[in-house]
Amino acid sequence: MIEWTIRGRELANCNCDYGCPCQFNALPTHGSCEAAVGFEIDTGHFGDVNLDGLKGAGVYQWPGPVHEGGGTMQLIVDDGATEEQRDALLTIMTGGETEPMATMWFVYSAMCDTKLDPLSLPIALEVDVDARMGRVSVPGVFETSAEPIRNPVTGDVHRARIDLPNGFEYSLAEMASASTQATGSIKLDLKDSYGQFAELHLSNNGVVRGAA
Question: What phi and psi values does residue 78 have, to the nearest 5 degrees?
Fold first, then answer.
């Protein structure tokens, strides 16, 4: 197995209510699961391939809960990546060179029967995990924006976090309100639904603990 590790941050938006039942081993809010995700790697490698500064993204859609499979996915790698870097990142994002079920990428890929051709496009990404502010934009594919959840009565900023000591994506995630318009091969129309900001520290064996 080729050893790999990455450190960075992500912004994700799915169609569930704030909190996302999937984070608690419950069924999705509306029965199905739809999501868009963008991330940036600060430092990372795949074997001897340097992944520093790379960005990646994905759009996913399942007819039911993720664990029932039958999903469709499309991955995007920043067009600034070299061919080696692109191949390495796509391997990681499709669960390759990874212990079974160790990362969210392995699980998502395993649960998607349809894998659309990956894209090489510019990815604009701004992620401030602590402030719960960010956006991801991939031209012609999707645009996601996120901001803090606000109290419906006072309008004050509300902060909530999810701590998953044994999760396969992060150790600690900040909750946000996010919206996505996806106009590519996978269509999404999400408005003020579950947003997630997280620091990523992942390897072949899953989350590297103590990273949050």
Answer: -50, 135
94 SS3 class: coil
CA dihedral 62, 113, 4, 33 (to 10 degrees): 0
Instruction: Please tell me the distance from the alpha carbon of residue 23 to that of residue 167, in angstroms, as a whole number.
Output: 9
Among candidates 51, 18, 64, 16, which has minimal Cα distance to 36? 16
Q: How many structural domains are present in the chain?
A: 1
Backbone angles phi, psi at 81, to 5 degrees: -75, 145
* Tens digit of pLDDT at every position of the chain (212 positions): 999 999 999 999 999 999 999 999 999 999 999 999 999 999 999 999 999 999 999 999 999 999 999 999 999 999 999 999 999 999 999 999 999 999 999 999 999 999 999 999 999 999 999 999 999 999 999 999 999 999 999 999 999 999 999 999 999 999 999 999 999 999 999 999 999 999 999 999 999 997 44
The full DSSP string for 142-189 is EEEEEE-EE-TTT--EE--EEE-TT-SS-SEEEEEEEEEEEESSSEEE
Range of 44's domain?
4-207
Q: pTM of the prediction?
A: 0.96
